[in-house]
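Why does residue order matter? Because the sequence determines the fold. Keep that principle in mind as you read this record.
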Amino acid sequence: MKLVLKSGSLSLAVDLKDTPTSRAVFEAAPFEARAQTWGEEVYFETPVSAKLEPGAKQVVEPGTVCFWTQGDALALPFGRTPISTDERPKLANACNVLGFLPDFASLRKIKPGDKVRVEKA
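Structure:
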């Protein structure tokens, strides 16, 4: 399963792991939302609700595609967040890990309020 995240001129490919939440997000595509940021993380609401899965993590590597169950949102960390204790992103809560975004440095270009579109690749 692959998704494409688009915002302005950005188009980023995401390879998804085969998990219940990944499948739900994939099936919900296409959808759009307005981006929000928290430190070096972009996040935005989805039309999906999910429960925490085994393997959920709060500290992840930059570029990890996460699903924040408390906010029904995709969380895309690309660096430190306000609660990071080292160079790795620390999410607000444990999140389901959906996949990885190789070109995560480009997420810096997305600003609060920017429209993000999620499509099937």
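Strands lie at 2-7, 10-16, 31-34, 36-37, 41-45, 57-59, 64-68, 73-77, 90-100, 115-120.
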